[in-house]
Each structure stands twice: as C-alpha cells, then as structure tokens.
Amino acid sequence: MKSKASQSQGILLFRLTQTQSFAIGTLKILEIFPYTPLTVLPGSHDFVLGAANIRGLTIPVIDMAAAVGYQRLSKEEIPKCYIIITDCQRKTIGFLVRKIERIAECSWKDIEPPAKNLGRQAFLTGVTRIDGKIVQLLDVELIISLVFPDNDTDSFPSLTDVQREKLKPLNILLVDDSIVARAQLTGALDRMNISYQVTANGSDALNIMKMAASENSPIDLLVSDIEMPGLDGYELTFEIRNDSQQLGAPYIILHTSLSSEISVNQAHQVGANEALTKFDAGDLIQAMLRGADHKEEKSVGSISKQS
Asked: Alpha-carbon torsion 187, 90, 98, 107, what sign?
C-alpha cells in the first residue's frame, strides 16, 4: 500500500546573503513580488521595514536577514530584492530576501533536524542538500513570534472539571519541529494540568508510539505538525494507520501553520481525524475533547460487542 503522503514537497530556495541558500515550504507561500515601495509603520518592530499595499491588503514586510541575525540590507540593495508573501499562523506577512533562486522538489525524509546545540533561536527547522549544496530551512513561526509576539494569555481556555477529567487519563503525544509551536502546545496543556509527551520530529514520535504500545500503554491522542524533517505529519499519520494492529487507532489531529485547503484535504486522505490551523488554544482543546469522546464511544462499543 503506497502512501498518498509520500510525494515530494516543494521548497522555495532564496538567498539572505551572497552565498548561503535558505528555504521555506511552498505551502506557506501566497505570492512572490519584486520589491515595491513600502509605507513606514510607526511604532513597529525594528525588523519591520514597512508595509506593502498588495491587492488592496496592507501587509507588513520583515527584513528576514536582520531577523535571523545577518547584516541588514543596505538602502541601495533593498530595491533589488524580492518580497515573499506568506500565510502562516493565521497571519499574512511579507519577508524581504536578497534573491529568489528557484522552487525545488524535496522529500521531507531527506531533511535532517538541525543540530541540538544550536540553541533556542537558531531559526532552523531542518537542513538538506539540493544539487550538492547545503540548504537551511527557516522556522518562519519563530521569526513571526519574535516580531509579532502574542502575549494574550486570556486566549487560553478554561476547562470544567468534567472536561479536565476526560483528558487526564489519555496518553497524549505532541509533535512539532518548531520551538514556538511546541511552547504553545505545551503551554496550553500545562495551564490546564494535563500530562503529555512531546518530541520534535515524526520519526521519534513513531518510535515513542511503538514503545508505548509494547508497554500496553498506547498513545490515545496525537497532535502533530505537518511540515517536519525526516517523517512529516502526513507520512506519520499514514504509518500509524497502516500499522493499526500494533499501534491501535489513536485520534490524530494534524496541527499546522498552513492555511491551505489542500493541506486539510490531504490530512483527511491519509487518515487524520482532524486538521487545525495554528494557533488557537480553544480550537485545539475542543478537538482534543472530541478525541476523548471518540475514545469513550469506541470503548463503550467494544464492551457492547463483548456482552
């Protein structure tokens, strides 16, 4: 049985310096424009160059090189640059880059996680090789979170005692390669005193699930990112559904910064129960409660068949 998720995915290659290639997944990208004059946004973050008016929308534009620690582009260089318009984490943001190279096909299995000693603000989610050259995949979510921090802790939902007791018995696994997304996921559950396991990539997640199943404590609920190095969320979901005899039938929520309808459709095709756009804690908790109800209904059904 061949996975519908095994197809290669597009990544956009671009330059922030004269020599180093960087990339982001094409599913995050809406459009690419040559530089257009920007309107200054008073009081904005230092990395925000201004706002572009594109198709009637006012879109903030971030100097991506400066945001990830490279030298700022000079006033003479900026007009020769390009703006990548992204749709990520429910925000439409532009990123100014020095040069657009091309779109390349790349399997997420060929992308390696970044070295663990790079620290919390390395801005990388993975590293791969295209035509023999090293390409670094940037953590767009981390950049956005630093430039547009979301400090609204009131957005975290409160649970009733009944709802909390539904979630507490579940073996929950969280998977995301983005530091920001992991912090958001774990923060939401920590605030509600819900236990979980967490890992940064799909390969480790699959191993955790196999180990848990072998100890007769299978994962009940999986919340996973889609775009990850090694084994992406689609492939992870497919592998789980293809090995239900060992891993059981966990409730799978694919949780992604991608807003594309194509992403949601493909998530259902490979066997995910739900697909959500990051990050709304209320939406996530409601989906997890539906997972708890699903498990309860299956348990009741199993008991009914036995009797």
From this structure: positive
Going by pLDDT thresholds of 50, 70 and 90, the confidence category of residue 244 is: very high
pTM of the model: 0.72
Q: What is the mean pLDDT of residues 94-106?
A: 93
Q: Dump pLDDT digits (tens) for 117-148.
A: 655 457 888 889 898 888 999 988 889 888 98
Dihedral sign from CA coordinates of 180, 203, 23, 71: positive
Over the stretch 198-232, which tens digit does the pLDDT of each residue have?
999 999 999 999 999 999 999 999 999 988 888 88
Pairwise pLDDT comparison (115 vs 301), residue with the higher score: 115
Query: How many angstroms separate the Cα of 86 from the Cα of each of 59, 96, 240?
Result: 10, 11, 31
- Give the distance from CA 90 to its chain's centroid: 12
Q: Please name which of 172, 181, 173, 230 lies closest in space to residue 201, comparing C-alpha atoms.
A: 230
Q: Report which DSSP code applies to 98.
A: S
> 276 φ, ψ to 5°?
-120, 150
Distance of CA 199 to the CA centre of its chain: 13
- Report the side by side order of strands in the sheet with 48-54: 29-34, 82-88, 91-97, 57-63, 48-54
Q: Which of 236, 249, 117, 134 is nearest to 176 (CA)?
A: 236
What are the structure tokens assigned to 59, written together?
């879109």
